[in-house]
């Protein structure tokens, strides 16, 4: 199936809608005009016939019992209205006959009659049928004779009537043509306003597909949805650009961290092979330490692989959160002591919950590890847990180096590390907080961070109602 551009589709759609609408409107308008015009002609014909009948009835002389025909007036009616008028008395004697000359275009208004006949044919009035209406003449409720009024076609329209009808049709036709032209022009303008920004955004998307994440959309339009689409494309480009930079930095850092222990191991092994060094306990212990470093690096890579999984499967159970958090604190206290850090716990008792115990403990491990890595000596870290209404609130607060304001909105993104100078010292891969966030959200909770550079940070987790056992 051949693809058609959006501009052509919009133009075609607008054209069909506009033309179709005006055709339907024109047909309906024409029918209404025909109906109203025919009704008008019918009324006009009746009025003229009534005037002729009244004229003849008024000319009746009761004393003599005869009709004094006003031939001049009847001739004028016959000529003006293109009538064939015949008047007979009560005995059937013809008193007056205008003849059919006025029907055929003869007489003083011959040219007008011919024009009248031509216009009737032009506007589809039947000129071949002769219509004759016979009326009884009365005087004081007594019959005095009959009058026949004949004419050609339906309703016997005059030249003025025909011209008026013609003008109406012309106005309607020109209005439809102008309306269609105006509609097409507006359709083109509207289509351009819609498609031009979309074409530009499509070009930007293609550039991004080719790996150019530096490009940005500069679309300016009054259409809200298109503006939002343009901003979304820019946000996507910025995110991809940042992720690309983070991946490159992670690759570089991992390569460096892998190279160091591998180089050390290679030197030791070559020394053993060449007989330069003896495999003493000290040398073997150094090799063992480098192998442990490599093992930790592999574990970090496994964490990255876990992060790529689409969904986290939770193994929920009922347990006492207070007890588990206190166990974690006891595990970490010796490590904190080595760095002369104080780990303080402010955990309310009997926090019964229904969660994935291992995931919750891993969340706390990550947060306490971060607090440990980024706290200065002789500092303190406070782990708090309490119940607020139907929520469980857990917070980890430190007085360490803090996080810059520009980094706060990115710290939960994978591979992002705000403190680049301490990357290798802390051994971070930039995915710890991303994992924490995904685990919290898997439980239906939220996590936020407040921090000031040089003053410390506080991470707060809220697990919503429905996860706790009352």
Automatic annotation (TrEMBL):
Catalytic activity line of the entry: ATP + protein L-histidine = ADP + protein N-phospho-L-histidine
Annotated GO biological process: cellular response to phosphate starvation
Compartments in which it is found: Membrane
Transmembrane segment boundaries: 12-29, 171-190
A GO CC term attached to the entry: plasma membrane
EC number: 2.7.13.3
GO molecular function, one term: phosphoprotein phosphatase activity
Keyword Disulfide bond: no
Keywords annotated in UniProt: Kinase, Membrane, Phosphoprotein, Transferase, Transmembrane, Transmembrane helix, Two-component regulatory system
Pfam families on file: HAMP (PF00672), HATPase_c (PF02518), HisKA (PF00512)
Protein name from the UniProt record: histidine kinase
Organism: Clostridium homopropionicum DSM 5847
Gene name, Swiss-Prot/TrEMBL: phoR_5
């Amino acid at each position: 199936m051949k693809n058609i551009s959006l501009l052509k589709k919009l133009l075609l759609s607008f054209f069909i809608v506009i033309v179709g609408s005006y055709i339907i409107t024109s047909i309906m308008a024409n029918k209404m005009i025909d109906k109203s015009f025919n009704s008008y002609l019918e009324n006009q014909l009746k009025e003229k016939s009534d005037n002729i009948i009244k004229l003849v009835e008024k000319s009746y002389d009761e004393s003599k019992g005869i009709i004094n025909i006003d031939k001049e007036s009847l001739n004028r009616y016959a000529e003006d209205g293109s009538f064939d008028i015949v008047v007979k008395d009560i005995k059937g004697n013809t008193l007056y006959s205008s003849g059919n000359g006025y029907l055929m275009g003869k007489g003083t208004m011959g040219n007008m009659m011919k024009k009248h006949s031509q216009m009737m044919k032009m506007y589809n009035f039947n000129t071949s049928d002769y219509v004759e209406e016979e009326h009884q003449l009365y005087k004081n409720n007594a019959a005095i004779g009959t009058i026949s009024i004949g004419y050609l076609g339906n309703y016997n329209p005059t030249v003025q009537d025909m011209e008026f009808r013609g003008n109406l049709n012309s106005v309607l036709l020109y209005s439809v043509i102008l309306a269609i032209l105006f509609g097409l022009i507006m359709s083109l303008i509207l289509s351009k306003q819609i498609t031009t920004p979309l074409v530009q955004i499509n070009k930007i998307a293609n550039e991004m597909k080719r790996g150019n994440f530096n490009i940005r959309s500069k679309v300016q339009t009054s259409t809200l949805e298109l503006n939002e689409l343009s901003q979304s494309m820019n946000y996507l480009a910025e995110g991809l650009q940042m992720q690309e930079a983070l991946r490159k930095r992670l690759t570089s850092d991992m390569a460096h961290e892998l190279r160091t222990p591998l180089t050390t191991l290679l030197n030791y092994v070559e020394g053993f092979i060449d007989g330069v060094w003896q495999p003493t306990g000290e040398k073997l212990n150094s090799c063992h330490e480098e192998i442990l470093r490599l093992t930790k690096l592999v574990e970090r890579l496994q964490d990255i692989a876990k992060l790529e999984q689409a969904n986290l499967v939770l193994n929920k159970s009922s347990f006492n959160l207070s007890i588990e958090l206190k166990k974690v604190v006891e595990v970490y206290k010796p490590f904190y002591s080595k760095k002369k850090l104080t780990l303080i716990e402010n955990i309310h008792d009997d926090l019964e919950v229904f969660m994935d115990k291992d995931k919750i403990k891993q969340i706390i491990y990550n947060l306490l590890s971060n607090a440990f890595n980024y706290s200065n000596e002789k500092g303190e870290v406070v782990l708090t847990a309490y119940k607020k209404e139907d929520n469980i609130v857990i917070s980890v607060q430190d007085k360490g180096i803090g996080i810059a304001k520009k980094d706060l909105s990115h710290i939960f993104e994978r591979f992002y590390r705000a403190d680049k100078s301490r990357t290798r010292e802390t051994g971070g891969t930039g995915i710890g907080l991303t994992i924490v966030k995904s685990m919290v959200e898997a439980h239906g909770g939220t996590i936020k961070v407040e921090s000031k550079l040089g003053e410390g940070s506080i991470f707060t987790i809220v697990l919503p109602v429905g996860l706790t056992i009352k």
